């Protein structure tokens, strides 16, 4: 993003590198970290495999703010939201925040009002 442009998530001005990046919802990160945590616990005899405090706090955070716990539900949420030509950023914000109305979704992610009429129809 050039120095002249100001970042604005409402207009999806968040930088090309971020727009092209693969984003993960909190529930997806929770599944990944839980899997890694289980692996580390199985190898707990080795002191090099101890779980760091940062890792534990990260896992606690994403678990606390994950709306979906079941791996099948997590996959289904991404599949459904992927149908509506959302950017990764939009998809993850909506997947994390779970708006209950169209108005709430637009307030959280204003860019979907312009870019995603199909999504808005699905919400109705």
From TrEMBL:
Protein name: DNA-directed RNA polymerase II subunit 4
Residue span(s) of domain RNA polymerase Rpb4/RPC9 core: 16-120
A cellular component term, taken from the record's GO annotations: DNA-directed RNA polymerase complex
Claim: Nucleus is one of the keywords in the record: yes
Main localisation: nucleus
Keyword Nucleus attached: yes
Keywords attached to this entry: DNA-directed RNA polymerase, Nucleus, Transcription
Annotated localization: Nucleus
Lineage of origin: Eukaryota, Viridiplantae, Streptophyta, Embryophyta, Tracheophyta
Pfam families linked to this entry: RNA_pol_Rpb4
Family as reported in the entry's similarity comment: Belongs to the eukaryotic RPB4 RNA polymerase subunit family.
InterPro entries: HRDC-like_sf, RNA_pol_Rpb4/RPC9_core, Rpb4-like, Rpb4/RPC9, Rpb4/RPC9_sf
Gene3D superfamilies (alphabetical): 1.20.1250.40
């Amino acid at each position: 993003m050039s120095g002249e442009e100001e970042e604005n998530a409402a207009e999806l001005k968040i930088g090309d590198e971020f727009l092209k990046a693969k984003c993960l919802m909190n529930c997806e990160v929770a599944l990944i970290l839980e899997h890694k945590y289980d692996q580390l616990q199985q190898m707990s005899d080795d002191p090099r495999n101890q779980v760091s405090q940062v890792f534990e706090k990260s896992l606690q955070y994403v678990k606390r703010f994950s709306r979906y716990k079941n791996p099948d539900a997590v996959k289904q949420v991404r599949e459904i939201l992927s149908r509506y030509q959302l950017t990764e950023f939009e998809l993850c914000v909506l997947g994390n925040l779970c708006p209950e109305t169209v108005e709430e979704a637009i307030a959280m992610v204003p860019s979907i009002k312009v870019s995603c009429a199909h999504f808005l129809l699905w919400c109705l």
